[in-house]
Design a protein that fits this description.
By secondary structure, this protein is mostly beta strands. Helices cover 3% and strands 38% of the residues. The radius of gyration is 14 Å and the shape is globular.
């Protein structure tokens, strides 16, 4: 059984919420990806898929499938993600202990401590 469910966040639309206590470093989700080469970015960024993209190496883009596409951004995230190039997945782990009912969030910049601006207004 998944340790999370999909619910409306009340601010960003859908999001993922813990359905039980989650321990620090616990693997939360393994999301397969579709890798898009760098020369396709000019087309991809004009589509709705732009909102579900992750950096994949220095130049390519990965489109997250599964629940990986539903993590919302936070400047105080409780989940970190790492590209697993061997398996073509993005693996999501808990940064800290998470209580039942908490929203599971990532920092869209990849670095949990990155506070730089995004392309939208962040609601904390």
């Amino acid at each position: 059984m998944l340790p999370f469910c999909v619910k409306d966040t009340g601010k960003y639309g859908r999001g993922l919420f813990a359905t039980r206590a989650i321990k620090k470093d616990e693997l939360i989700e393994v999301s397969p990806v579709i890798v898009s080469p760098k020369d396709e970015w000019k087309y991809l960024k004009k589509t709705v898929l732009f909102y579900y993209c992750f950096h994949w190496g220095k130049k390519d883009t990965a489109i997250a499938l599964g629940y990986g596409a539903l993590f919302n951004h936070s400047y105080s995230p409780n989940i970190r993600f790492k590209n697993n190039k061997e398996n073509f997945t993005i693996d999501f782990h808990a940064l800290k202990d998470i209580k039942e009912g908490e929203e599971l969030t990532i920092n869209y910049k990849g670095d949990p401590d990155d506070k730089s601006e995004l392309w939208f207004d962040v609601i904390e």
